[in-house]
Amino acid sequence: MKLNYLISATITGMLAIVLFTTSTEAQSIFFGIDDYGRRTNPIGLKLLTMLIPICLGFCIGWFFSPGASRVRGATLIFSAVSIILVAIANDGVLGGSSALLVAVVGFFGALGFWLKRGISALGEAPRTFGSSRWATQEDLEIHNIIGDDGIRIGQAYHQAPTDVISYKGDRHLLTVAPTRSGKGTTQIIPNLLSYTGSTLVIDPKGENAMITTGHRKAMGQDVYIVDPWGIANIEGIETAHFNPLDWLDITDVDITENAMLLADALVVGENHADSFWIEEAKALLQGLILYVATDENEADQRHLGRVRDLLLLDGEDMPKQFKRMTQSPHHIVASTGARCLQKEPKLIANVLAAAQAQTHFLDSARIRESLSMSDFKFEDLKTKPMSIYLVLPADRLNAFGRWLRLLVQQAITVNARNIAKKPEKPILFILDEFAALGRLSMVEQAYGLMAGFGLQIWGIVQDFNQLERIYGGGWQSFVSNSGMINYFGSSDKMTAEYFSSMCGETTVWNFSSAVANAFSPSSGDKSTTETDNRSAAQRKLAYPDELMRINTTKQIVFIENMYPLQAFKTPWFKDEALKSKGVNLHDQ
Predict the structure, then answer these.
(1) pLDDT in the model for residue 2
(2) How many angstroms separate the CA atoms of 109 and 104, rounded?
(3) Closest-CA residue to 337 (of 274, 295, 277, 305)
């Protein structure tokens, strides 16, 4: 209403100015024009020269604004009717010109009407057989993907080179990237240089630690590098240690369950035919772990190296150990000792052999040293900014993967239980070489149930065959429970076909032309008929072979409730906002 009043006042003012200036008396007073036509008051003329364009511009702008659509429509109709009436009623030049104008405008208007319909029909995307498409700039804005205040993904096609896209949800993440595809330089390191929350990262080469540790310390984070082989040699930072048995408190009502989780992390079993021996090995390890953690005679050697030593006792000392365990006040320790004494010698020998096979990695002096004491607690990841790097050389992943399993399972467990405390930003678990961990029940549960518990898990695998081999038919739950999945390409056919199906199907126009010739023998006449047809056809948005040949600078990103997105992978050392924060190892 105020705008209407302003417009009315402006128009009234303009009319008043026109009427005022056409009056001789007004000219004499306002402009100072005397009886001889001389101007004696130039200020009035200047003022009027300024006011008229301002008012005129305001009115013209309002006329073409959305608020004046009705006035504009009425004016156009009135003008058209007036021109037509003039063309009909006037027999002179004015009438002829008006008629010609009406004819030309009418011709092009009618032609444009059908052209517009035809062009719209051609340009309109058919949806008969599917409506999938690539995400647009508008989709990015609607889903709040633009910006670097989340987990950085890369850069979208539609954006300027300096803009980034990021995932800001609280669900877990999954990356499918083969070796040498740039997952470290374009995903892991950019987030370690920008993410302000606590992190735990598996770092097979130690490069993540060497590049980002300095900046994360500068961010005010406590940094711990657990590196048994010392491959991430960083000046000023000593190698950290962590003893999983420090978690076991005799006064904790959950000590039995916690010991069971440690035993579960130690034992890797993928063959269902060996399930009996696997479960028996877990039970034995649980009892021995509880014994070492609670017996007063073991106070100076409460670590997994001691558990390994007990497993390797000879035939005479092992029964004595089981008998000592039966005297324990802890019922699980006592029952484990009693069960082992009751078993036939051959059966207990097989159980011991199974447990020994699962703990070979504890013979490594480097691993035993790393597990001998604790320099930090995983519980602190939620209460203060911390960065933990678990460094294990790639060539030792298979032999010592259980060490990673132990630490990752415990870190997730203790923080998933503490749901009362929620950090400002979730703890980010970056699990590179995710498949090397084997089947971890806690990670599987976390993907399905623990989104929003103050932690986010980011699994990185080379292809989906790895997940299927480890988790069987349940591997797809990692896909369905991820809020963001990005694909860097794969030579694995199953993986490419799966992502092709995730991209969906779309409908496209199929144009065809047909020419028919006819000849009449009786009359000798010939005729030719040409027919143009247009039909809707189905095609995949991206075929598997196209996804297997994806450009090395690009990725396909799937974000919950959004169309698939084509994005660029940007190495951290080419990002203006990040390259000064990390240590470029190639410049040293």
Answers:
(1) 46
(2) 8
(3) 295
Neighbouring-strand partners of residue 154 = 165
Beta bridge partner(s), residue 388: 200, 224
Backbone φ and ψ for 389, nearest 5 degrees, come out as -110, 125
> What strands lie across the sheet with 482-487, from one edge to the other?
165-167, 151-156, 565-568, 554-559, 482-487, 172-176, 455-461, 427-431, 199-203, 386-391, 222-226
**Average pLDDT of adjacent 10-residue blocks, the chain of 588 residues:** 50 52 52 53 61 70 68 76 74 72 75 68 64 86 89 78 83 94 94 97 94 95 96 86 95 94 88 80 96 93 96 92 95 95 93 94 96 96 96 91 94 88 91 90 85 89 93 91 95 94 84 63 64 71 92 93 92 91 78
What residues are paired with 431 via a beta bridge? Answer: 459
Instruction: Match 């700039």 to its residue by tokens.
Output: 137
Last residue of a domain, one of 373, 396, 421: 373
The structural domain count of the chain equals: 2
Could you tell me if 333 and 314 are in contact, meaning their C-beta atoms sit under 8 angstroms apart? no
Is 55 within a domain?
Answer: yes
**Residue 1: per-residue pLDDT:** 44
CA-to-CA dists, residue 6 to 10, 19, 53, 511, angstroms: 6, 20, 16, 56
Residue 336 lies in a domain: yes
Q: Compute the distance between CA of residue 31 and CA of residue 403 in angstroms, rounded to an integer.
A: 96
The residues, ordered by sequence, that sit 6+ positions from 440 with a Cβ below 8 Å of its Cβ are 265, 405, 408, 409
Helix (H, G, I), strand (E, B) or coil at 76: helix
- Note the pLDDT of residue 5: 45
Picking from 13, 41, 63, the residue at the C-terminal end of a domain is: 63
Q: Which domain holds residue 343?
A: 243-373
252: in domain? yes
CA dist., res. 455 & res. 381, Å (int): 10
Asked if residue 219 belongs to a domain, the reply is: no
Give the helix/strand (H/E) hosting 518.
Answer: strand 505-519
The helix or strand, by DSSP H or E, that contains position 140, with its residue range, turns out to be helix 137-142
Amino acid at 224: Y
The pLDDT of residue 273 is 63
Q: CA-CA distance, 45 to 367, in Å (whole number)?
A: 94
Query: In the structure encoding, which two tokens stand for residue 47, read together?
Result: 């003022």
What CA–CA distance (Å, rounded) separates 397 from 392?
7
Round to whole Å and give the CA distance between 74 and 59: 16
